Amino acid sequence: MILMTAARWASGLAAGLSLALAFVAAPADAQTPWRHGIISPKSDAGFLLMAAKRGFAEQEGLKLELLQVKDDQIGLKALLAGELESYEGGIQGAIAADVRGGDVKIIGCQWPLVPHGLMAKASLHAVADLKGKSIAVSAPGSFPDMFARVVLAKFGLSPADVKFAAIGGDRDRYTALVGGVVDAAVVSNEYLPLRSSKGLKMLVSGSEAGPNFLRVCTFSTARVLAARRDEAVRYVMAQSKALHFALTHRDETLALTREASDMTADDPRPAFVFDDVVRTGAIAPDLPIPMDKIAWMRDQLLALGQIPSAGNLVGMVEPSIRAEAMKRLGH
After folding, report:
1. What residues form DSSP beta bridges with 87?
2. Dihedral (CA of 170, 111, 33, 8) sign
3. Is the separation of the CB atoms in 190 and 43 below 8 Å?
4. 184 Cβ neighbours under 8 A, 6+ residues apart
5. Out of 95, 117, 143, 196, which could bridge 202 as a Cys pair, Cβ 3.0 to 4.6 Å?
6. 3-state class of 1 per DSSP?
7. Could you tell me the domains of the chain?
8. Which residues make beta-bridge pairs with 25?
9. Which tens digits make up the pLDDT trace of 287-324?
């Protein structure tokens, strides 16, 4: 089965989760923390870490702990197992969990556009040229895996026409492509300004693959939202304020990115990512819940055979948390 069930995601978590999570916490006090999971940040760190690292959570009276995870599946496991109050990442796993009866609720989507694309060797000129070639993706059911399959289908190829290589995160997939281990890879466009990308090209961009692809949404569970509703509202408020600040304070956002990722001042990626985000409107700081995009993502999973049924789309979202947050913020 391409996607693991929600039960399988949650099983065995206690044995291995502690090794997969790295803590980044706001200053501690006696308050019960709000534990929030994020994919380990890279050139986008200034956006992802702003709420926790620059006091926006504290302003809302929230003790925010960020837990960095390697991929969406680990984050979703942690959420389902009660190790997190919320998690932000790709939506495909959350949809699959909901369809299978998992307790996952979408409370907002702060990154509705994907910066990813299908990068390939310069000798490949079209998707058709990938026939018989290898493509670096990530774990089955992950966003890179889904992205590659949607691209192939759009251009008339099937998964059987290529060789999928499940290779970790963006950096691992990019390294495999540069090293000639694979012929193409699903990676973020942040690698385009690097000198090592000179012999590569973005064969298909995210917008070309499908304008309804969602990059990042925030998830919680009905259990958490019932028990800690006011804190969930304050978390969304803090995140919204932080993203508004990040988008309008370039220098501060780039400085936080470099601080968190140990990138040197001459690394072009943080500035490239920031400017691309602003130019394309890739971040939605008010965390909307775009039901049309969520439905499209669900439909792609169904068409690819990665979920057994369409499920209840309305039941996958909890809009009242965001609505209350925006009301308090006066938006």
Report:
1. 37, 219
2. negative
3. yes
4. 118, 119, 120, 121, 124, 130, 133, 134, 135, 136, 177, 203
5. 117
6. coil
7. 6-113+213-329 (3.40.190.10), 116-209 (3.40.190.10)
8. 65
9. 999 999 999 999 999 988 889 999 999 999 999 999 99
